Amino acid sequence: MCAVKAPPSYGYAFVTAHRFLPSGPLTGRIRVPGDKSISHRALMFGALAVGRSRISGLLEGEDVLATAAALRAMGARIERSGDDWVVDGVGVGGLLQPEQALDMGNSGTSTRLLMGLVASHGITAAFTGDASLSKRPMGRVIDPLSTMGASFTPSPGGTLPLVMEGMQPAVPVTYRLPVASAQVKSAVLLAGLNTPGITTVLEPVPTRDHTERMLRGFGAELTVEEADGERIIRIHGPADLHPCDITVPGDPSSAAFFAVAASVVPGSDLVIENVGLNPTRDGIFRVLGQMGSDIEKLDEREVGGEPVADLRVRHAKLKGIKVDPAIAPSMIDEFPVLFVAAAMAEGTTVTSGLDELRVKESDRLFAMAAALMAAGVTLEEREDGLVITGSGGEPLRGTANARVATHLDHRIAMSMAVAGLASRHGVEIDDIEPIATSFPNFTALLDAAAS
Ligand SMILES: O=C(O)C1=C[C@@H](OP(=O)(O)O)[C@@H](O)[C@H](O)C1
Ligand SMILES: C=C(OP(=O)(O)O)C(=O)O
User: Active site: which residues (predicted)?
Assistant: First the structure.
Protein backbone atom coordinates (compact mmCIF):
# COMPACT_ATOMS: atom_id res chain seq x y z
CA MET A 1 0.00 0.00 0.00
CA CYS A 2 1.64 3.29 -1.03
CA ALA A 3 -0.99 6.00 -1.32
CA VAL A 4 0.14 9.59 -1.89
CA LYS A 5 -2.47 12.34 -1.95
CA ALA A 6 -1.54 15.33 -4.11
CA PRO A 7 -3.33 18.31 -5.61
CA PRO A 8 -4.66 17.40 -9.04
CA SER A 9 -3.57 18.86 -12.33
CA TYR A 10 -7.17 19.16 -13.55
CA GLY A 11 -8.49 21.44 -10.88
CA TYR A 12 -10.69 19.82 -8.20
CA ALA A 13 -10.70 17.12 -5.53
CA PHE A 14 -7.55 15.09 -4.96
CA VAL A 15 -5.53 12.65 -6.94
CA THR A 16 -4.20 9.62 -5.14
CA ALA A 17 -1.33 7.65 -6.61
CA HIS A 18 -1.11 4.01 -5.60
CA ARG A 19 1.27 1.12 -6.26
CA PHE A 20 -0.37 -2.28 -6.71
CA LEU A 21 2.21 -4.87 -5.71
CA PRO A 22 2.65 -8.49 -6.84
CA SER A 23 0.18 -10.58 -4.92
CA GLY A 24 -0.24 -14.02 -3.42
CA PRO A 25 -3.25 -16.13 -4.47
CA LEU A 26 -6.74 -14.64 -4.34
CA THR A 27 -8.91 -16.84 -2.17
CA GLY A 28 -12.14 -16.89 -0.14
CA ARG A 29 -15.51 -15.40 -1.02
CA ILE A 30 -16.22 -11.83 -2.08
CA ARG A 31 -19.34 -9.95 -3.15
CA VAL A 32 -19.03 -7.10 -5.64
CA PRO A 33 -21.35 -4.04 -5.43
CA GLY A 34 -24.62 -3.68 -7.32
CA ASP A 35 -24.82 -3.35 -11.08
CA LYS A 36 -24.20 0.23 -12.20
CA SER A 37 -26.52 0.15 -15.23
CA ILE A 38 -29.39 -1.34 -13.23
CA SER A 39 -28.81 1.06 -10.32
CA HIS A 40 -29.09 4.15 -12.55
CA ARG A 41 -32.28 2.81 -14.10
CA ALA A 42 -33.83 1.76 -10.77
CA LEU A 43 -33.49 5.35 -9.53
CA MET A 44 -34.76 6.89 -12.78
CA PHE A 45 -37.78 4.62 -13.17
CA GLY A 46 -38.58 4.89 -9.47
CA ALA A 47 -38.46 8.68 -9.87
CA LEU A 48 -41.02 8.48 -12.69
CA ALA A 49 -43.40 6.08 -10.97
CA VAL A 50 -46.34 7.27 -8.90
CA GLY A 51 -45.62 6.11 -5.34
CA ARG A 52 -42.71 4.62 -3.43
CA SER A 53 -40.14 2.21 -4.85
CA ARG A 54 -37.60 0.40 -2.70
CA ILE A 55 -34.20 -0.61 -4.01
CA SER A 56 -31.87 -3.08 -2.34
CA GLY A 57 -28.29 -3.61 -3.46
CA LEU A 58 -28.03 -0.18 -5.11
CA LEU A 59 -24.48 0.68 -6.18
CA GLU A 60 -23.40 3.62 -4.04
CA GLY A 61 -20.76 4.74 -6.52
CA GLU A 62 -20.29 8.36 -7.56
CA ASP A 63 -21.92 7.84 -10.97
CA VAL A 64 -25.14 6.51 -9.45
CA LEU A 65 -25.12 9.19 -6.76
CA ALA A 66 -24.91 11.80 -9.56
CA THR A 67 -28.09 10.31 -11.04
CA ALA A 68 -29.78 10.44 -7.63
CA ALA A 69 -28.79 14.09 -7.09
CA ALA A 70 -30.10 15.09 -10.54
CA LEU A 71 -33.42 13.34 -9.98
CA ARG A 72 -33.77 15.04 -6.60
CA ALA A 73 -33.12 18.38 -8.29
CA MET A 74 -36.05 17.56 -10.60
CA GLY A 75 -38.47 16.79 -7.79
CA ALA A 76 -38.08 13.11 -6.78
CA ARG A 77 -37.46 12.17 -3.13
CA ILE A 78 -34.59 9.71 -2.88
CA GLU A 79 -33.19 8.56 0.46
CA ARG A 80 -31.19 5.79 1.99
CA SER A 81 -33.32 3.78 4.43
CA GLY A 82 -31.26 1.25 6.38
CA ASP A 83 -29.48 -0.86 3.77
CA ASP A 84 -32.04 0.01 1.08
CA TRP A 85 -32.92 3.12 -0.86
CA VAL A 86 -36.45 4.51 -1.20
CA VAL A 87 -37.63 6.63 -4.10
CA ASP A 88 -40.86 8.64 -4.11
CA GLY A 89 -41.60 9.32 -7.75
CA VAL A 90 -43.19 12.33 -9.41
CA GLY A 91 -44.95 10.37 -12.18
CA VAL A 92 -44.16 10.41 -15.91
CA GLY A 93 -44.48 14.04 -17.06
CA GLY A 94 -43.93 15.33 -13.53
CA LEU A 95 -40.23 16.26 -13.58
CA LEU A 96 -39.60 19.82 -12.40
CA GLN A 97 -37.19 22.29 -13.88
CA PRO A 98 -33.89 22.06 -11.93
CA GLU A 99 -32.78 25.34 -10.37
CA GLN A 100 -29.10 24.68 -11.01
CA ALA A 101 -26.97 22.87 -13.57
CA LEU A 102 -27.07 19.09 -13.19
CA ASP A 103 -23.55 17.93 -12.37
CA MET A 104 -23.05 14.55 -14.03
CA GLY A 105 -19.50 14.09 -12.71
CA ASN A 106 -17.82 11.32 -14.72
CA SER A 107 -20.98 9.50 -15.78
CA GLY A 108 -21.98 9.07 -19.43
CA THR A 109 -24.96 6.90 -18.49
CA SER A 110 -26.42 9.53 -16.14
CA THR A 111 -25.99 12.23 -18.77
CA ARG A 112 -27.41 10.48 -21.80
CA LEU A 113 -30.34 8.79 -20.06
CA LEU A 114 -31.35 11.92 -18.16
CA MET A 115 -31.15 13.93 -21.39
CA GLY A 116 -33.69 11.43 -22.75
CA LEU A 117 -36.00 12.06 -19.79
CA VAL A 118 -35.73 15.84 -19.99
CA ALA A 119 -36.34 15.78 -23.78
CA SER A 120 -40.06 15.09 -23.41
CA HIS A 121 -40.71 17.30 -20.38
CA GLY A 122 -41.43 21.00 -20.82
CA ILE A 123 -38.37 22.02 -18.83
CA THR A 124 -34.92 23.47 -19.43
CA ALA A 125 -31.84 21.86 -17.90
CA ALA A 126 -28.10 22.45 -18.03
CA PHE A 127 -25.71 19.48 -17.87
CA THR A 128 -22.10 19.73 -16.73
CA GLY A 129 -19.44 17.11 -16.08
CA ASP A 130 -15.80 16.56 -15.22
CA ALA A 131 -12.87 16.92 -17.63
CA SER A 132 -13.36 13.36 -18.95
CA LEU A 133 -17.12 13.57 -19.48
CA SER A 134 -16.78 17.00 -21.09
CA LYS A 135 -14.85 15.41 -23.97
CA ARG A 136 -17.40 12.67 -24.71
CA PRO A 137 -19.75 12.87 -27.71
CA MET A 138 -23.32 13.89 -26.96
CA GLY A 139 -24.30 14.33 -30.63
CA ARG A 140 -25.39 10.69 -30.59
CA VAL A 141 -28.30 11.57 -28.27
CA ILE A 142 -28.77 15.16 -29.40
CA ASP A 143 -29.60 13.93 -32.94
CA PRO A 144 -32.57 11.66 -32.15
CA LEU A 145 -33.84 13.82 -29.26
CA SER A 146 -33.85 16.86 -31.58
CA THR A 147 -36.08 15.03 -34.04
CA MET A 148 -38.46 14.43 -31.12
CA GLY A 149 -38.62 18.21 -30.54
CA ALA A 150 -36.01 18.98 -27.88
CA SER A 151 -33.51 21.76 -28.55
CA PHE A 152 -29.89 21.93 -27.47
CA THR A 153 -27.07 24.40 -26.98
CA PRO A 154 -24.00 22.20 -26.61
CA SER A 155 -20.35 23.20 -26.36
CA PRO A 156 -18.38 23.12 -29.62
CA GLY A 157 -18.08 19.52 -30.86
CA GLY A 158 -21.43 18.53 -29.34
CA THR A 159 -20.11 18.08 -25.80
CA LEU A 160 -20.87 19.20 -22.23
CA PRO A 161 -21.51 21.67 -20.79
CA LEU A 162 -24.82 21.97 -22.61
CA VAL A 163 -28.26 23.41 -22.07
CA MET A 164 -31.34 21.62 -23.36
CA GLU A 165 -34.96 22.52 -23.60
CA GLY A 166 -37.45 19.68 -23.59
CA MET A 167 -40.63 19.62 -25.65
CA GLN A 168 -44.02 18.63 -24.22
CA PRO A 169 -45.69 17.00 -26.03
CA ALA A 170 -42.71 15.55 -27.90
CA VAL A 171 -43.05 13.84 -31.27
CA PRO A 172 -42.80 10.03 -31.48
CA VAL A 173 -40.11 8.84 -33.91
CA THR A 174 -38.71 5.67 -35.38
CA TYR A 175 -34.95 5.69 -34.87
CA ARG A 176 -32.38 3.19 -36.16
CA LEU A 177 -29.29 3.20 -33.92
CA PRO A 178 -26.22 4.18 -35.97
CA VAL A 179 -23.94 2.95 -33.17
CA ALA A 180 -24.27 -0.06 -30.85
CA SER A 181 -25.10 1.90 -27.70
CA ALA A 182 -27.47 1.04 -24.89
CA GLN A 183 -27.24 4.64 -23.73
CA VAL A 184 -28.54 6.00 -27.02
CA LYS A 185 -31.25 3.32 -27.20
CA SER A 186 -32.28 4.12 -23.63
CA ALA A 187 -32.28 7.90 -24.16
CA VAL A 188 -34.81 7.55 -27.00
CA LEU A 189 -36.97 5.05 -25.11
CA LEU A 190 -36.98 7.23 -21.99
CA ALA A 191 -37.99 10.25 -24.07
CA GLY A 192 -40.77 8.00 -25.44
CA LEU A 193 -42.17 7.46 -21.95
CA ASN A 194 -43.75 10.93 -21.95
CA THR A 195 -44.40 11.15 -25.70
CA PRO A 196 -47.93 10.46 -26.93
CA GLY A 197 -47.94 7.59 -29.43
CA ILE A 198 -45.40 4.90 -30.25
CA THR A 199 -41.68 5.62 -30.16
CA THR A 200 -39.67 2.93 -31.95
CA VAL A 201 -35.98 2.08 -31.73
CA LEU A 202 -34.46 -0.25 -34.33
CA GLU A 203 -31.41 -2.00 -32.95
CA PRO A 204 -29.26 -3.79 -35.56
CA VAL A 205 -26.70 -4.95 -32.95
CA PRO A 206 -28.12 -6.03 -29.58
CA THR A 207 -26.85 -4.10 -26.54
CA ARG A 208 -27.59 -4.47 -22.83
CA ASP A 209 -31.35 -4.75 -22.38
CA HIS A 210 -31.88 -3.56 -18.80
CA THR A 211 -34.02 -0.62 -19.93
CA GLU A 212 -36.44 -2.91 -21.75
CA ARG A 213 -36.63 -5.48 -18.94
CA MET A 214 -37.02 -2.92 -16.18
CA LEU A 215 -39.48 -0.60 -17.92
CA ARG A 216 -41.77 -3.59 -18.46
CA GLY A 217 -41.39 -4.44 -14.76
CA PHE A 218 -42.47 -0.87 -13.89
CA GLY A 219 -45.59 -1.36 -16.01
CA ALA A 220 -44.70 0.40 -19.28
CA GLU A 221 -46.24 -0.94 -22.46
CA LEU A 222 -43.02 -1.92 -24.25
CA THR A 223 -42.66 -4.61 -26.88
CA VAL A 224 -39.58 -6.20 -28.43
CA GLU A 225 -39.71 -8.01 -31.76
CA GLU A 226 -37.02 -9.36 -34.04
CA ALA A 227 -37.20 -8.91 -37.81
CA ASP A 228 -34.53 -8.97 -40.54
CA GLY A 229 -31.81 -9.47 -37.97
CA GLU A 230 -32.63 -6.40 -35.89
CA ARG A 231 -34.52 -5.79 -32.68
CA ILE A 232 -37.55 -3.54 -32.88
CA ILE A 233 -38.39 -1.94 -29.57
CA ARG A 234 -41.62 0.01 -29.24
CA ILE A 235 -42.75 2.05 -26.28
CA HIS A 236 -46.29 3.40 -25.96
CA GLY A 237 -46.55 6.82 -24.38
CA PRO A 238 -47.46 8.48 -22.26
CA ALA A 239 -46.74 5.62 -19.87
CA ASP A 240 -47.99 5.12 -16.34
CA LEU A 241 -45.26 3.61 -14.21
CA HIS A 242 -46.12 1.90 -10.94
CA PRO A 243 -43.61 1.69 -8.09
CA CYS A 244 -41.49 -1.48 -7.74
CA ASP A 245 -39.29 -3.23 -5.20
CA ILE A 246 -36.01 -3.94 -6.93
CA THR A 247 -33.06 -6.10 -5.96
CA VAL A 248 -29.95 -5.11 -7.89
CA PRO A 249 -27.65 -8.04 -8.74
CA GLY A 250 -23.85 -7.77 -8.48
CA ASP A 251 -22.15 -5.99 -11.37
CA PRO A 252 -20.51 -8.36 -13.89
CA SER A 253 -18.30 -5.46 -15.02
CA SER A 254 -16.91 -5.20 -11.48
CA ALA A 255 -16.69 -8.98 -11.07
CA ALA A 256 -14.57 -9.13 -14.23
CA PHE A 257 -11.57 -7.51 -12.47
CA PHE A 258 -11.57 -10.27 -9.87
CA ALA A 259 -12.24 -13.01 -12.42
CA VAL A 260 -9.15 -11.94 -14.38
CA ALA A 261 -7.07 -11.41 -11.22
CA ALA A 262 -7.86 -14.91 -9.93
CA SER A 263 -7.26 -16.40 -13.38
CA VAL A 264 -3.75 -14.92 -13.70
CA VAL A 265 -2.39 -15.12 -10.14
CA PRO A 266 -1.09 -18.67 -9.48
CA GLY A 267 -2.79 -20.63 -6.71
CA SER A 268 -5.96 -18.52 -6.72
CA ASP A 269 -9.33 -20.08 -5.92
CA LEU A 270 -11.91 -17.34 -5.42
CA VAL A 271 -15.71 -17.31 -5.25
CA ILE A 272 -17.37 -14.11 -6.48
CA GLU A 273 -20.94 -14.16 -5.19
CA ASN A 274 -24.12 -12.87 -6.78
CA VAL A 275 -22.81 -11.91 -10.24
CA GLY A 276 -25.37 -10.73 -12.82
CA LEU A 277 -25.08 -12.86 -15.96
CA ASN A 278 -27.56 -11.23 -18.33
CA PRO A 279 -26.57 -12.58 -21.79
CA THR A 280 -26.18 -8.99 -23.06
CA ARG A 281 -23.49 -8.48 -20.37
CA ASP A 282 -21.64 -11.77 -19.89
CA GLY A 283 -19.31 -11.68 -22.93
CA ILE A 284 -16.18 -11.36 -20.77
CA PHE A 285 -16.82 -14.71 -19.11
CA ARG A 286 -17.41 -16.37 -22.48
CA VAL A 287 -14.17 -14.94 -23.90
CA LEU A 288 -12.19 -15.91 -20.79
CA GLY A 289 -13.65 -19.41 -21.24
CA GLN A 290 -12.35 -19.49 -24.83
CA MET A 291 -8.92 -18.51 -23.45
CA GLY A 292 -8.95 -21.53 -21.13
CA SER A 293 -10.01 -19.95 -17.84
CA ASP A 294 -11.42 -22.10 -15.04
CA ILE A 295 -14.68 -20.35 -14.10
CA GLU A 296 -17.51 -22.41 -12.69
CA LYS A 297 -21.05 -21.10 -12.27
CA LEU A 298 -22.51 -22.11 -8.91
CA ASP A 299 -26.11 -21.81 -7.70
CA GLU A 300 -27.53 -20.30 -10.89
CA ARG A 301 -30.68 -18.36 -10.01
CA GLU A 302 -32.69 -15.24 -10.78
CA VAL A 303 -32.34 -11.95 -8.86
CA GLY A 304 -34.49 -8.94 -9.75
CA GLY A 305 -35.48 -10.52 -13.08
CA GLU A 306 -31.83 -11.07 -14.10
CA PRO A 307 -29.87 -14.35 -14.29
CA VAL A 308 -27.30 -14.51 -11.48
CA ALA A 309 -24.72 -17.04 -10.24
CA ASP A 310 -21.76 -17.30 -7.88
CA LEU A 311 -18.56 -17.67 -9.89
CA ARG A 312 -15.75 -19.93 -8.66
CA VAL A 313 -12.57 -18.80 -10.40
CA ARG A 314 -9.34 -20.76 -10.21
CA HIS A 315 -5.94 -19.90 -11.65
CA ALA A 316 -5.53 -21.30 -15.15
CA LYS A 317 -3.08 -21.18 -18.02
CA LEU A 318 -4.68 -18.79 -20.49
CA LYS A 319 -4.04 -18.90 -24.22
CA GLY A 320 -4.26 -16.04 -26.70
CA ILE A 321 -7.22 -15.99 -29.10
CA LYS A 322 -8.78 -13.92 -31.84
CA VAL A 323 -11.77 -12.24 -30.17
CA ASP A 324 -14.89 -12.20 -32.33
CA PRO A 325 -15.86 -8.49 -32.70
CA ALA A 326 -19.55 -9.50 -32.59
CA ILE A 327 -19.20 -10.20 -28.87
CA ALA A 328 -17.98 -6.62 -28.14
CA PRO A 329 -21.32 -5.04 -27.11
CA SER A 330 -21.82 -7.72 -24.42
CA MET A 331 -18.46 -6.88 -22.80
CA ILE A 332 -17.82 -3.32 -23.93
CA ASP A 333 -16.56 -2.12 -20.53
CA GLU A 334 -14.50 -5.26 -19.91
CA PHE A 335 -11.93 -4.90 -22.72
CA PRO A 336 -9.39 -3.04 -20.55
CA VAL A 337 -9.22 -5.97 -18.14
CA LEU A 338 -9.40 -8.51 -20.97
CA PHE A 339 -6.23 -6.87 -22.32
CA VAL A 340 -4.57 -7.67 -19.00
CA ALA A 341 -5.66 -11.32 -19.30
CA ALA A 342 -4.25 -11.31 -22.86
CA ALA A 343 -0.96 -9.89 -21.56
CA MET A 344 -0.64 -12.93 -19.25
CA ALA A 345 -1.73 -15.55 -21.81
CA GLU A 346 0.37 -17.85 -23.94
CA GLY A 347 0.47 -16.54 -27.52
CA THR A 348 -1.20 -13.62 -29.23
CA THR A 349 -4.64 -12.11 -28.65
CA VAL A 350 -6.17 -10.08 -31.46
CA THR A 351 -9.09 -7.71 -30.86
CA SER A 352 -10.91 -5.61 -33.46
CA GLY A 353 -14.16 -3.68 -33.95
CA LEU A 354 -13.55 -1.68 -30.77
CA ASP A 355 -13.86 1.91 -32.08
CA GLU A 356 -16.34 2.67 -29.27
CA LEU A 357 -13.54 2.23 -26.71
CA ARG A 358 -12.04 5.46 -27.99
CA VAL A 359 -15.01 7.52 -26.67
CA LYS A 360 -15.39 6.15 -23.14
CA GLU A 361 -14.11 7.88 -19.98
CA SER A 362 -10.76 7.84 -21.80
CA ASP A 363 -9.59 6.58 -25.17
CA ARG A 364 -9.31 3.08 -23.75
CA LEU A 365 -7.29 1.64 -26.63
CA PHE A 366 -4.67 4.38 -26.32
CA ALA A 367 -4.71 4.41 -22.51
CA MET A 368 -4.40 0.62 -22.15
CA ALA A 369 -1.74 0.38 -24.87
CA ALA A 370 0.38 2.98 -23.07
CA ALA A 371 -0.24 1.49 -19.62
CA LEU A 372 0.51 -2.10 -20.63
CA MET A 373 3.67 -1.06 -22.49
CA ALA A 374 4.83 0.68 -19.31
CA ALA A 375 4.18 -2.61 -17.52
CA GLY A 376 6.45 -4.40 -19.99
CA VAL A 377 3.88 -5.85 -22.41
CA THR A 378 4.53 -6.19 -26.14
CA LEU A 379 1.58 -5.01 -28.20
CA GLU A 380 0.41 -3.22 -31.29
CA GLU A 381 -2.25 -0.53 -31.15
CA ARG A 382 -4.48 -0.59 -34.20
CA GLU A 383 -7.27 1.80 -35.15
CA ASP A 384 -9.99 -0.49 -33.75
CA GLY A 385 -8.24 -2.84 -31.35
CA LEU A 386 -5.06 -4.10 -29.73
CA VAL A 387 -2.89 -7.06 -30.68
CA ILE A 388 -1.20 -8.33 -27.53
CA THR A 389 1.64 -10.81 -27.18
CA GLY A 390 1.20 -12.64 -23.89
CA SER A 391 3.90 -13.48 -21.34
CA GLY A 392 2.84 -17.14 -21.15
CA GLY A 393 1.98 -16.71 -17.47
CA GLU A 394 5.30 -15.08 -16.48
CA PRO A 395 4.96 -11.95 -14.30
CA LEU A 396 4.92 -8.72 -16.32
CA ARG A 397 8.40 -7.23 -16.48
CA GLY A 398 7.91 -3.43 -16.46
CA THR A 399 10.59 -1.29 -14.84
CA ALA A 400 10.36 -0.70 -11.10
CA ASN A 401 9.55 3.02 -11.49
CA ALA A 402 6.95 2.69 -14.29
CA ARG A 403 3.84 4.77 -13.62
CA VAL A 404 0.64 4.52 -15.62
CA ALA A 405 -1.84 7.29 -16.41
CA THR A 406 -5.52 6.54 -15.84
CA HIS A 407 -6.95 9.66 -17.55
CA LEU A 408 -9.85 9.91 -15.04
CA ASP A 409 -10.95 6.40 -16.08
CA HIS A 410 -11.94 3.95 -13.34
CA ARG A 411 -11.63 0.93 -15.63
CA ILE A 412 -8.03 1.79 -16.61
CA ALA A 413 -7.17 2.17 -12.92
CA MET A 414 -8.71 -1.17 -11.89
CA SER A 415 -7.34 -3.06 -14.91
CA MET A 416 -3.82 -1.85 -14.22
CA ALA A 417 -4.27 -2.72 -10.53
CA VAL A 418 -4.88 -6.31 -11.69
CA ALA A 419 -1.79 -6.06 -13.91
CA GLY A 420 0.15 -4.98 -10.81
CA LEU A 421 -0.81 -8.17 -8.97
CA ALA A 422 0.61 -10.20 -11.85
CA SER A 423 3.81 -8.15 -12.28
CA ARG A 424 7.38 -8.49 -11.10
CA HIS A 425 7.78 -5.00 -9.55
CA GLY A 426 4.20 -3.81 -9.10
CA VAL A 427 2.41 -1.14 -11.12
CA GLU A 428 2.08 2.44 -9.95
CA ILE A 429 -1.16 4.15 -10.94
CA ASP A 430 -1.22 7.93 -11.08
CA ASP A 431 -4.72 8.31 -9.62
CA ILE A 432 -7.05 5.75 -8.06
CA GLU A 433 -9.77 8.28 -7.11
CA PRO A 434 -11.86 7.52 -10.27
CA ILE A 435 -12.40 3.95 -9.00
CA ALA A 436 -15.08 5.36 -6.67
CA THR A 437 -17.30 6.11 -9.67
CA SER A 438 -18.25 2.43 -10.06
CA PHE A 439 -16.53 0.32 -7.38
CA PRO A 440 -15.88 2.25 -4.13
CA ASN A 441 -14.62 -0.78 -2.14
CA PHE A 442 -12.39 -2.20 -4.89
CA THR A 443 -9.05 -1.88 -3.07
CA ALA A 444 -10.57 -3.13 0.20
CA LEU A 445 -11.94 -6.24 -1.54
CA LEU A 446 -8.63 -6.78 -3.32
CA ASP A 447 -6.75 -6.58 -0.03
CA ALA A 448 -9.24 -9.01 1.55
CA ALA A 449 -9.04 -11.54 -1.31
CA ALA A 450 -5.26 -11.38 -1.63
CA SER A 451 -4.37 -11.53 2.08
O1 LIG B 1 -26.53 1.81 -20.74
C2 LIG B 1 -25.65 1.65 -19.87
O3 LIG B 1 -25.91 1.53 -18.66
C4 LIG B 1 -24.24 1.59 -20.32
C5 LIG B 1 -23.97 1.41 -21.65
C6 LIG B 1 -22.61 1.34 -22.20
O7 LIG B 1 -22.32 2.55 -22.87
P8 LIG B 1 -22.69 2.78 -24.44
O9 LIG B 1 -24.14 2.77 -24.56
O10 LIG B 1 -22.10 4.14 -24.73
O11 LIG B 1 -21.99 1.68 -25.16
C12 LIG B 1 -21.55 1.14 -21.12
O13 LIG B 1 -20.27 1.40 -21.64
C14 LIG B 1 -21.81 1.97 -19.89
O15 LIG B 1 -20.88 1.69 -18.89
C16 LIG B 1 -23.18 1.69 -19.32
C1 LIG C 1 -18.36 3.65 -19.98
C2 LIG C 1 -18.68 3.58 -18.68
O3 LIG C 1 -19.62 4.36 -18.05
P4 LIG C 1 -20.36 5.69 -18.49
O5 LIG C 1 -20.54 5.67 -19.98
O6 LIG C 1 -21.65 5.66 -17.74
O7 LIG C 1 -19.50 6.83 -18.05
C8 LIG C 1 -18.07 2.54 -17.82
O9 LIG C 1 -18.54 2.42 -16.68
O10 LIG C 1 -17.11 1.86 -18.20
Answer: 333
Instruction: Compute how many other C-beta atoms are within 10 angstroms of the C-beta atom of residue 384.
Output: 15
pLDDT tens column, 226-243 = 999 999 999 999 999 999
Q: Examine the domain organization and report whether 309 and 232 are in the same domain.
A: no
Binding residues: 36-37, 41, 108, 136, 181, 183, 333, 360, 364, 411
**pTM summary value:** 0.97
Q: Does the pLDDT value for residue 354 go beyond 80?
A: yes
Is 135 in the same domain as 163? yes
Q: What letter represents residue 328's amino acid?
A: A
Provide the mean pLDDT of the chain.
Answer: 96
CATH of the domain at 384: 3.65.10.10
CB-ligand 1 contact for 182 (6 Å cutoff): yes
Most ligand 2 atoms within 8 A of CB, residue of 32, 36, 40 to mutate:
36
Ligand nearest to the CA of 138: 1
C-beta 103 within 6 A of ligand 2? no
Residue that terminates a domain, selected from 247, 274, 290: 247
Q: Give alpha helix (H) positions in 265-306.
A: 283-290
- Which residue type occupies 296? E
User: Which ligand is closest in space to the CA of residue 364?
Assistant: 2
**Could you tell me the residue range of the domain that residue 238 belongs to?**
37-247
ipTM of the complex model:
0.99
Burial tier of 302 (Cβ tally within 10 Å: 0-12, 13-18, 19+): exposed
Please list the active-site residues. 333
237 and 312 both lie in a single domain: no
Mutate to test the pocket of ligand 1, among 43, 140, 183 (most ligand atoms within 8 A of CB): 183
pLDDT in tens, 85-117: 999 999 999 999 999 999 999 999 999 999 999
d(CA 141, CA 315): 42
Whether the per-residue pLDDT at 55 is higher than 80: the answer is: yes
